[in-house]
Amino acid sequence: MVMIEPATIQKGLDIDAIRIVSNGVNKLRNKDNAVLVVTHYQRLLDYIIPDFVHVLYNGRIVKSGTKELAFELEEKGYDFIKNEKTVEMLSTGI
């Protein structure tokens, strides 16, 4: 198991360093293991292409999709998810 401090990839690295770190992460990906990346930054997902994207809200996964969901989040922000009925139901405990 390899663990990388999440902030390492996203903060303080220039674009070349992000590419280098991303290449290392991508080399760890194979059919026998999983890689979990937690990020708020679309730029990182330009180099580590996700198989799945999950959105957490109030501690729960409220929306899942492919890499296109990350692009949609970049374009619209999180408000469009917060306004969906599913999120409203989860936040009220229904």
Question: Can you give me a brief rundown of this structure?
Answer:
The protein has six helices and two strands, in the order H-H-H-E-E-H-H-H.
Characterize the structure shown.
This protein has 94 residues and is mainly alpha-helical. The protein folds into two domains: 1-38, no CATH class; 50-94, no CATH class. It has helices at residues 6-10, 15-28, 42-45, 67-76, 79-82, 85-92; strands spanning 53-57, 60-65. The chain has a two-stranded antiparallel ribbon. β1 and β2 (60-65) form a beta hairpin. The relative contact order is 0.12.
- Terminal Cα span: 38 Å
> Quick one: overall form?
globular
Q: How many structural domains are formed by the residues?
A: 2
Run of helices and strands: HHHEEHHH
Rounded radius of gyration (Å): 15 Å
Strand coverage percent:
5-15%
Descriptors for this entry?
94 residues; mainly alpha; 2 domains
Layout of strands and helices, then pairs:
Blueprint: H1 6-10, H2 15-28, H3 42-45, E1 53-57, E2 60-65, H4 67-76, H5 79-82, H6 85-92
Antiparallel strand pairs: 1-2
